[in-house]
Amino acid sequence: MPAGVSWPRYLRMFGASVLSMFAGAQVVHQYYRPDLTIPEVPPKPGELRTELLGLKERQTDSLSEKR
Length: 67
Prior knowledge:
By secondary structure, the protein is mainly alpha-helical. The protein has helices at residues 7-32, 53-66.
């Protein structure tokens, strides 16, 4: 067995690592909120603009709270 551990312990460690990897991917996905829409016509080179939608919303919220 790898690393000299028993099968049940190895499977628990493997399962925990896979679950934490999925949870981390979900957290990043929710934080950056990717735009998953498919445009009708592909943009020309240099025309595509990407934004951090979550960051933009937080900045506008914090600016409105300061006023």
